Amino acid sequence: MLNLDWSFYRWDVISSFVLKGLQFSLLLTVVATLGGVAFGTVLALMRLSGRRWLELPATIYVNGMRSIPLVMVILWFFLLVPFVIGRPIGAELSAIITFIAFEAAYFSEIVRAGIQSIPRGQVYAGQALGLTYGQNMRFVILPQAFRNMLPVFLTQTIILFQDTSLVYAIGAYDMLKGFEVAGKNYGRPIEAYLAAAVVYFAICYGLSALVKRLQTRIAIIR
User: Fold this and answer.
1) Contact 179, 21 (CB under 8 A)
2) pLDDT tens across 163-182, in order?
3) C-alpha dihedral, 78 to 66 to 161 to 152, nearest 10°
């Protein structure tokens, strides 16, 4: 039997070690989601443009990113970019840029599928009103597509939050790192990792339940 001791988990320990890491994990999740959706939407529109000079590079980028493990992208960017520009950019900034670039490939596929799910009649209606391709996307297609995609967006965001623990590989101070430092300082690494697993589960399970409720409400609206 393991001799577990949870007495060292006091508020001062949590506020000093864990909350600092949680703040960065949440910041990384929010920034990577917003940046990934914006960049991913551009990639999706490029792939649906019908112009090969736009479609081909977007396809290569999306398929390439989706074929590489995230931890490898994190390590490559962290190690190679300072070599190219001649100075380090820091683990936190490196993680933010890497996550935006990586998640954009996944959000792109979500956006592309959402746009293609809109009935063609909506597209023809916009064209009949004299809207350009950009106006049709902006005022007719994308608002409907984003509403349909919202549950999938949120599900991908939950996965993104789980993946933030991978920045541990480059030494960024995320929530997992906070638990690890607390465990090392008090000589209780097993309790620290168990507590981290419980917190990750509680956050992700709670958010997943909210996504299911939202999905039900959107289905009713339809």
Assistant:
1) yes
2) 999 998 899 999 999 999 99
3) 150
Comparing C-alpha atoms, which of 43, 42, 93 is closest to residue 64?
Answer: 43
Given a contact cutoff of 8 angstroms between Cβ atoms, the answer to whether 32 and 107 are in contact is no
Q: Residue 8 in contact with residue 186, Cβ under 8 Å?
A: yes
- pTM higher than 0.85, yes or no? yes
CA-to-CA distance for 203 and 180, rounded, in angstroms?
A: 18
Token pair recorded at residue 50: 């019908």
DSSP letter string over the chain? ------TT--HHHIIIIIHHHHHHHHHHHHHHHHHHHHHHHHHHHHHTSS-HHHHHHHHHHHHHHHTS-HHHHHHHHHHHHHHHHSS---HHHHHHHHHHHHHHHHHHHHHHHHHHHS-HHHHHHHHHTT--HHHHIIIIIHHHHHHHHHHHHHHHHHHHHHHGGGGGGGT---HHHHHHHHHHHTT-HHHHHHHHHHHHHHHHHHHHHHHHHHHHHHHHH-
The contacts of residue 50 (CB under 8 Å, 6+ apart) are: none
